[in-house]
Amino acid sequence: MNVEPSRRSLLNGAAALAGAAALSPLLVACGGGGSGNQGGTSSEQGLASALPDHVPSDAVTPDIAPVEGAAGAISPPGFLRYPTERVRTVPEVPGSGGTYTTLTPLWGAVPPADNEHYRAMNEALGATLEMAPSAGANYGTVLPTLTAAERLPDWVQLPGWLNAQASTGRLVGTQLADLTPYLAGDRIRQYPNLAALPTGAWRGGIWQDKLYGIPVHSGTFTLGGMFYHRRDIFEERGIDANEVRSADDLFALGEELTDARAGVWAFEELWPFIDLIFPIEAKFRVVDGRLVHRYEQPEFIEALDWCRRIVDAGLLHPDALTGSHNDDASKARFYAGQSLITADGGGSWNGADADAGRAANPGYRRGCFMPFSADGTSEPRLPLMWTASWYSYLNIKLRPEQIEECLRIANYLAAPYGSQEYTRITFGVEGTHWTEGPDGPRYTEQGTIEAQPGTYVFLANPIAVVSNLGYPQITEDFCAWAAEAVRYAYKPVFWNMNITVPRRLATADAAQAVEDTISEVSRGIQPVSAFQEALGTWKRNGGDELVGWYETEVLDKLGTGQE
């Protein structure tokens, strides 16, 4: 979602996770040919005993209140400007003089070491965090080297989408500390800002009935993506996007919008988020107690054929046939009005997007289609992604008193948006790193270099909110959309469950050959029959065995995770 800070902004424009990988459980392969439960999914009883209590915070009041929706989803609160009354949520200095090494990813310029922001933060924390951000693009190659040598720092960020590369399931309890004795149940109440994080977020940090990970960048309405349109152009042409209520309506609108002679096409690539329209279950659907993989769900072929029809009708921008999904070129086409409908992550709807769009067209305004179903009669269904897919971990070598000190620091870092602590963490020292503007803090030149990159947020941070300082209309638009869309949320099968897949099935689980074929079919490069052939090969070469493993080792023993 478009949150502050958002996953999208953290990845600095990197492609959003899509397809099976985006909505599947946080997976990690383990050795051997057995059940592969090392570091794997927790039992219902074990999960219940390891989960911390949830105690919502009312320390900061948003301008736009969240809305409760389906499946426990809650739309994010909205702030039209930065709170002027900045409450203090951590009354005492959290640290006791310890020094801790850290490792976090960072996309963008790395701040200078031992800068003024870091020094001020250490003073506020009463401890020394040796911040050592590593280039995000190479983060997946840094971690295996450290884990193999057992040289992890005291506090490390291990994103869920790197679980396989980092072998997280084999690190818990061997290199990563068990936090269950410190945070389970009512023990978390001594850390009220951590207790305010949603319950679902903590589930992703639990492995084999024990809590290890501290959730980062959590949200209660997290979607893989959204379907956007050029609202300014639609309004100019008298087009009401809310009249699109089916896949046929969207196709017809595409025909109306496309004018190849004028250099305008309706669509950028839509396939990666097609399950927002067609009811394709994220990875599995349960039918009569058995699992049906998304590739074998009848709606999958229907969706693939629909995307192929868009290409055949000439409605997809021709450059989208060869480019990467949501690359800089596709964004530039959308800004220039060469394409008018696109699919992208929630974090793309923000102030930076408005600046880029208005540079190409002063009237630029992004809009989002309200949820609709492919057939136009069924209720829309929006699959929730993980409540959090980033987790920080503490080193098992830390003594109990050091773990407690780090958790007090984490509680400080998780202070709610707009609080005194959040302001210090995010913006730095007033007068040095920021000055007060009409909508809230504004970075100085020094603040842009030292504080804006946001290194501490990968250790702990509060639940996501919608905030676009200086762009209140964007916040209003987003919150209005989310308040309606949250009604259609659902939890996919194995939602928020860590699952350790045996190494012998890792290739089948990744299904890269099938995914490559799907990409080519959806862009019109290969016929739909090519997917059916790739599916048959996948089933014979481990796909059927994979589905059977999920049935016997996860579904039958541990349930669906949808409760």
UniProtKB/TrEMBL annotation:
PANTHER family: ARABINOSE-BINDING PROTEIN-RELATED, SN-GLYCEROL-3-PHOSPHATE-BINDING PERIPLASMIC PROTEIN UGPB. It comes from the Bacteria. This is Extracellular solute-binding protein. GO terms for cellular component: cell envelope. It is found in: Cell envelope. Keywords: Signal, Transport. Residues 1-29 form the signal peptide. It holds the Pfam family SBP_bac_1. Belongs to the bacterial solute-binding protein 1 family. Its main location: other. The keyword Transport applies. Residues 34-63 are annotated as: Disordered.
